[in-house]
Amino acid sequence: MTTSEVAEGRAQVLRWVEEGRTVLDGVLRLLTELDQVRQSLEVAQNECARLQQEGDQLRAEVSRLQADTERSQRERKELANWFTTVMNETASRLQSLQAPA
Prior knowledge:
With 101 residues, the chain is mainly alpha-helical. The protein contains one helix and no strands.
């Protein structure tokens, strides 16, 4: 090997080392970003799970409230029917009391 070939070889090795540092820096940046993405994903998954649980609780509450509303409407209807029956009976008795006079 000649001196110029050795010098070229050495220059090539130095370029590879510099390129290797650049590549390694890029890899380190990517690994750091990957860790940040994983952390963000974990936070998002936890939030999603919390929101799903909250949604389930709200759906259960809506179902309970709908059942309460239906029950209240039935009771109101029954009460209105009872009141109508009582008022009709009262009116009928009043008419029968007034008829002989």
